[in-house]
Specification:
Layout: E1 3-9, E2 15-20, H1 23-34, E3 38-45, H2 48-57, E4 62-64, E5 67-68, H3 72-85
């Protein structure tokens, strides 16, 4: 089963919205690719279609690729995911 994940780049503060079957492994790989720590913020059930919807929803905050500025709307959305999971 795939999950959509939200992960934060500790250096820039930007947030990656991605999808993976193994989120922890993917976040670790991203951290290796950018050569500094990436923190997993939240996950939700979802596939590439849901990921695309998230990318469109927060397109105004996109910096490049799957990376987005930590705008209030995105941070609030991530908090709502955490609250539903608790």
């Amino acid at each position: 089963m795939h999950s959509v994940y939200f992960a934060c780049d500790r250096m820039s503060g930007d947030i990656k919205i991605g999808t993976s079957k193994n989120v922890r492994m993917r976040v670790s790989r991203v951290s290796s690719e950018v050569k500094h720590p990436i923190d997993l913020l939240a996950t939700m059930d979802g596939n590439r279609e849901i990921e695309s919807i998230m990318h469109a929803r927060f397109a105004h905050a996109r910096t490049h690729g799957e990376w987005f500025r930590p705008v209030p709307e995105l941070l609030a959305y991530i908090e709502s995911i955490k609250e539903r999971a608790a």
